[in-house]
Amino acid sequence: MFFELAALAYFVDMIFGELPCKHPVVLMGDFINAFERRFYSDRILPGALLVVGLIKLTLLISIAVAYLCGFLPDWLSLTVLAVLASTGLAMNMLHESVAALLTAEQPKQALSYLVSRDTQDMTETEVYKAGLETWAENLSDGVIAPLFYLLLFGLPGIAVYKAINTMDSMIAYKTERYFYFGKTAAIVDDIANYIPARLTALLIVALAKDKQRVWQCLRRDGNKLESPNAGYPIAAMAGALGVALGGDASYHGQIKHKPTLGLALNPVDKSALTQALQMKTGINLIVLGLLAAGALLS
């Protein structure tokens, strides 16, 4: 396992956040858009070819970069790989984006940059609820999952995961245009996030004061959502805060009925979101502690 690389990459993201360069995810998005313009059709096969093609291309480039770094001195190779890998981690950016809801003059507009649901008619409670769900779900997608694949497979692991996650965010929708074209991307993303989503839930359990309540919410609500993965970190967060998350939401003018997760013991308000965001410090300490221990023992 790549404990040293994962620890240094996480530390780089924790200190510097998103680096001032064209993000690899932007390049992946450009590839997806170009492929869609040229080869789109309302069938599964073209979407499957996109998934296979982008994964192969990402794997080839990342393996080549890792190989070339092998010619550098060990310390420099580790540093370069860690900086590159840190672009696949999003703890700082995620925290800053969600925390902006607490201070923004127009929180609905700030939220609209983070979610696909309609925000213009949301109540204050609905804004904070969406912020909590975004924080919980993206702790898995943007932090734990990429770190998991970096730890297992090095730079190629995190690069391929980001390719999968980018395709999911761009084409894996159950709309008329993407129902078939994006189906393969959705399935692959569900598989890739299966373990990380549950690890994220366990991390939230570790940080919660009332662990029994979190376990109760996880067992009862973790598999309630349409996604096989998103419900676990959201249910864990709801249990940790003693709030009810989920419920109906509007997407593109249509109400989507979703189950409620958690227990409505406390209000979903600014205090709840602040409390959730304060978990960042605990998450950083646990993650870096585990990675440092792994590096010392390996």
From TrEMBL:
It comes from the Bacteria. It is found in: Cell membrane. Its main location: membrane. GO terms for cellular component: plasma membrane. Keywords: Cell membrane, Cobalamin biosynthesis, Membrane, Transmembrane, Transmembrane helix. The chain crosses the membrane at residues 44-68, 75-94, 143-164. Converts cobyric acid to cobinamide by the addition of aminopropanol on the F carboxylic group. This is Cobalamin biosynthesis protein CobD. It comes from Methylobacter tundripaludum. The lineage of its organism: Bacteria, Pseudomonadati, Pseudomonadota, Gammaproteobacteria, Methylococcales. The gene is cobD.
